[in-house]
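Why this split exists: single-chain examples teach little about how molecules sit against one another. For that reason, every record in the complexes split bundles all components of an assembly together and asks for one structure covering all of them. Below is a record exactly as it appears in the raw files.
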Amino acid sequence: MIDLHCHSVHSDGTDTPEHLLALAEEAGVQAIAITDHDSLDGFDLAKAKSCEFQTELICGVEIGTHLSGCIRSVHLLGYFPAEPGASFRRWLHSLKESRISRNVRLMDRLRNIGIELTWEELHALSPHQLGRPHFARVLMQRGYVSSIRDAFSLYLSESGCAWTEREEPSIEEALSGIIEAGGIASLAHPVRISSDIEKIRQIIARLVPQGLEAVECYHPEHSDQVISQLLHIASEFRLRVTGGSDYHGENKPGIRMGWTGDEMTVPDELLESLRAGFDSRRIGADMA
Ligand code: AMP
Ligand code: FE
Ligand code: FE
Ligand code: ZN
C-alpha cells in the first residue's frame, strides 16, 4: 500500500508530520508523500525523523492555482526526487502570504454577516498555517453548522455566503515552478474542476504542453467510473498516474491513510512509475 497525497498540521491536516509516518507504518503503508498546501515545513520535519520509520517518505506539495476560464481553484501536486531549493521555497512563502491576507478578509466577511470568530480560537486548532478547514471547525464548535461539509457549503465554498477569494498563482506559473525545482506535476482530484469528463480531458490536453506529467486518478472523491475514465485519459496523453487518500486527519473525517474507498487502496505500482519519472529527471540533469 502507498499514499501519495496527505496533509499534516503544517497545512490543514490535524496530525504532526511524525504522526503521519507513525500512522502509515502502523497501517502497513510502504511509502507516503506529504503534500501540504504551499508548504514543505511538514515534509522537512518528517524527513528529520524518517530514519526511525519503515515507511518511505516522498517530498511533495499541493498548490491551488488559477486556470483561465475556470472559476474553481485547480490543485496541482508536485513530487520531487530531491528537496527543492531556496528559490522554490521562497515562492511557496509568497503563496502562504496570500492565504494569510485571504484569512483576514474572510474574518471580516464573517463579521459582516454577524459571525464574530477570534484568531485565538483558530490558532488553538493550529499554531501553523490556517486555512478554511480551520474556519470550518470553529464554525462547527460554535454551533453555526453541524459538520465541516455544511461549513463549506453554507459559508466557505464558492457558493457559500462568506466566500472570499484568494489570490492564486496561475497554473502555468505553478507548473514551471514545480518543473524548475526538479519535480513532477500531477493534476490533483480532477473531479473537483468539473463533473464533465470531457471538460477535464480538454484541460489536461491544454496543460500537457505546459509540463503536466501526471494525473491523480485514485482519490476518495473519484467513483470507479471516473477512475477508469481518468486512467484512459492518462494513457491517451502518456501521463503518469498518481493517487492518494488526501488524508487530513480530523479536518476531513472518514478518510483512512492509504485507502481511496472502502475497499480500494492506491496501487503500489504507481510508486515505481513515479520513481521512473524521477530517474529520467536525474538522467536529463546529468546530461545537461
Ligand atoms: P484554503 O486553501 O485555506 O482555501 O482551504 C482549502 C482546503 O479546504 C482544501 O485543501 C480542502 O482541504 C478543504 N476543502 C475545500 N472545499 C471543501 C469542501 N467542500 N468540504 C470540505 N473541505 C473542503
Ligand atoms: Fe486541504
Ligand atoms: Fe486538493
Ligand atoms: Zn490535498
